[in-house]
Amino acid sequence: MAEIRVDLEKCNGCGECISSCSFSALEMKDGKVRILATCTFCGACVDACSEEAIVLEKEEKKVDVSSYRGVWVFAEQRQGQIMPVTYELLGEGRKLADHLREELSLVLLGWKIEKKARGLTGYRIDKLYLVEDPLLEYYYTSFYTQTLVDLVKSENPEIILLGATSLGRDLAPRVAARLKTGLTADCTGLEIEPEERNLLQTRPALGGNIMATIISPHHRPQIATVRPKVMKRAKPDGKGQLRVIKIKPNLTSEDEMVRILDLIREEKDVVDLQEAEIIVSGGRGLGKPENFSIIRRLAHLLGGAVGASRAVVDAGWIPSYHQVGQTGKSVQPKLYVACGISGAIQHQAGMRSSEIIVAINKDPNAPIFDIATYGIVADLHRFLPLLIDKLEKREKALL
Amino acid sequence: MDIVVCIKQVPDTEELPHIRVNPETNTLVRESVKGIINPFDENAIEEALRLREAKGGRVTVVSMGPPQAKEALRKALAMGADQAILISDSSFAGSDTLATSYTLAMGIRKIGKFDLLLLGKQAIDGDTAQVGPGLAEWLSIPQITYARKIEVNGNQIRAERTLEDAFEMVEVTLPCLATVTKEINIPRYPSLKGLLSAKRKEVLVWGADDLSLDRKRIGLEGSPTQVIKIFTPQPPPKGEILTGEIPEVADRLIEKLRERKIL
């Protein structure tokens, strides 16, 4: 724990520190400054004091890398449901733990979730840290950060994996900054370097134009967020027992400044886009907004969702939550059908890792053909109705 | 209401395909690439300007980067920011997101009191989204990430946070940090008046000596992570152009999708 105090001999009562404090944690008493309980040890007053009268001692240990052992997976739960990315992390975590010959632990934070936790038996998890508290029922940055940091400090894992989701990407940087350790975002590949036991974390950057491999050689734990839907899901073998370690967190409700007032579900087609196995997207080649109906028909017929390029979103043809690309959503469905989309690099950044890409465009030089699995140089107004007709006939024949 | 906006200069996305890895040195070949303000940071600037227009106060824009990043700050001034500060020093080179958030935090402390700290949800070059929460941690303030709407009521803000399949209404007491998505607004173009007044304003430059820094926390030494390799990803396997009469092409596409077990 950090310690802060005022050297009363040096303090000249100038009050510079009081105006530097964002938390009103300082007051003047008898011409000397005093530190109140609201102090967060941020150190702003230390920097503000020209007399060096405020002393902040932060405890810092030298990191002994070898004293950190084991692989942790952070279990993401929302409303008591374990999110799919957790099972992908378990698959990957098991692989890394086996390489290191260490244990794989799952860390689950929540409230009244023990039953759910028991459902994880058989996933080859060596240990489950179950942390239950009413304050952990919903995701709050400060409570989750505090809980995870405390647990890391007492157990010293060498690797922690979290999903690169809105939750994981909110929590991981906060935890890593508090622990002053390395964090790599949105990894798509993880390996162990055998000699030094470093985690080799590979991730795309610059819109997928380059890949970078990153290590944290002198810091532990090594923390990574992992892109959803890239790693293989763990499969339960149904055997074994789950060793559950129950932890009581040390939280007080005053520690959280944020209050969640409400949770509002998005319209269904928004959900569809990121979870969809098939996406049919339209671009400027559609000619006019009404022509999105043909995209919707094809998407419906294939059981997929509707996407769009930035150009048509900016033109107001379709709401922005349909946008795929660098400033829109990143998707990786099994099949992506790009209709009348030229395939600018910004669009490619959001969809290039799709398994199969079908591109339909009049312009044979459109960049989308560089990454298309199957390219069709044709007028989409002629091609799509015909394709839809054939698919409908086929469907009827199968019935 | 005093608002600080942190922005990053990033390579223009139009030029991304021209950025290549030098296989001998394992470094990026990115000379002569034009810089722009990270698009999400433009939304953050716009939001700050709108809040100032509604509530009064000052907008200070800060960037950490090489001297060229001054251009990005000049544009922010032209959009209407009151003050611009570049945090730049050769000793900051090699900073990862932890060292960057530390250095920015020390710069923001030097600015002094603020109510709201705004950033884009992530930068489009690194795509990490780590500097915002890291900064909030160094400053010991609460954070709201992925905000698509922000309203100020007295000393509190109410915001909508974007989640995967829902959004969350949250409320927080100031000071706080928020990162914004592009849905929050449409950034303005600098006006002629703005461009002219930006010319008269100076971009302050602060180096390492201007900040109260722990030297162990900046640059390469302050960065736990190291990039050990960069490489160009495997290009997707060469695709196939289906040619012929349209009905025939449609049949072949259906056949291909059937083979790949999509249909």
Automatic annotation (TrEMBL), chain A:
Transport recorded as keyword: yes
Xref: SMART domains: ETF
Annotated GO MF terms: electron transfer activity; flavin adenine dinucleotide binding
Organism per entry: Aerophobetes bacterium
Membership in a protein family: Belongs to the ETF alpha-subunit/FixB family.
Keywords from the UniProt entry: Electron transport, FAD, Flavoprotein, Transport
Organism superkingdom: Bacteria
4Fe-4S ferredoxin-type domain boundaries: 2-31, 39-59
Designated name of the protein: Electron transfer flavoprotein subunit alpha
Xref: SUPFAM superfamilies: 4Fe-4S ferredoxins (SSF54862), Adenine nucleotide alpha hydrolases-like (SSF52402), DHS-like NAD/FAD-binding domain (SSF52467)
Binding site for FAD: 284, 309-310, 323-327, 340-347, 361
Cofactors that this protein relies on: FAD
InterPro entries reported for this sequence: 4Fe4S_Fe-S-bd (IPR017896), DHS-like_NAD/FAD-binding_dom (IPR029035), ETF_a/b_N (IPR014730), ETF_a/FixB (IPR001308), ETF_alpha_N (IPR033947), ETF_asu_C (IPR014731), ETF_asu_C_CS (IPR018206), Rossmann-like_a/b/a_fold (IPR014729)
Signal peptide feature range: none
BP GO terms, sorted: fatty acid beta-oxidation using acyl-CoA dehydrogenase
Cofactor binding comment, as recorded: Binds 1 FAD per dimer.
UniProtKB/TrEMBL annotation, chain B:
MF terms (GO), sorted A to Z: electron transfer activity
Listed CDD domains: ETF_beta (cd01714)
Residue ranges constituting the Electron transfer flavoprotein alpha/beta-subunit N-terminal domain according to the UniProt record: 25-215
InterPro entries xrefs: ETF_a/b_N, ETF_b, ETF_beta_N, Rossmann-like_a/b/a_fold
Pfam families hit by this protein: ETF
PANTHER family on file: ELECTRON TRANSFER FLAVOPROTEIN BETA-SUBUNIT, PROTEIN FIXA
Name recorded for this polypeptide: Electron transfer flavoprotein subunit beta/FixA family protein
Organism: Aerophobetes bacterium
